[in-house]
Amino acid sequence: MNKNYETVFIINPVLSEKQVEDTVKKYKKQLDSNKVKFICNESLGFKELAYPINKKNSGFYHLFQFESSDISVVKNLEVELKRDRSVLRYMTVSLCKDGIEFNARRAKGEFKKKKEKK
What we know:
single chain, globular, Alpha-Beta Plaits, 3 helices
């Protein structure tokens, strides 16, 4: 049975745009090789951190949402993320049905702020 997972990772802010892109491509390729079904592959942008990590106060956030029936796919991804010096932090969660529904609605743009008319 397939389970839905969401992995968010923070990439070091001192890297160039090309290096950030290459880092994301590397992990997407790893997941593709394990034949996961991608639901979302989204850059969440450059953000300030709540607290410094490795003396860095900001980072590039990236989100993968995917389906897989094999938990070792997630374990292998996390081992690679842990080894990568360009990744400051990462977190993978297994989504329940409410999380899946929320993400589907978010993908449709239901939660985007409406522009106020003056």
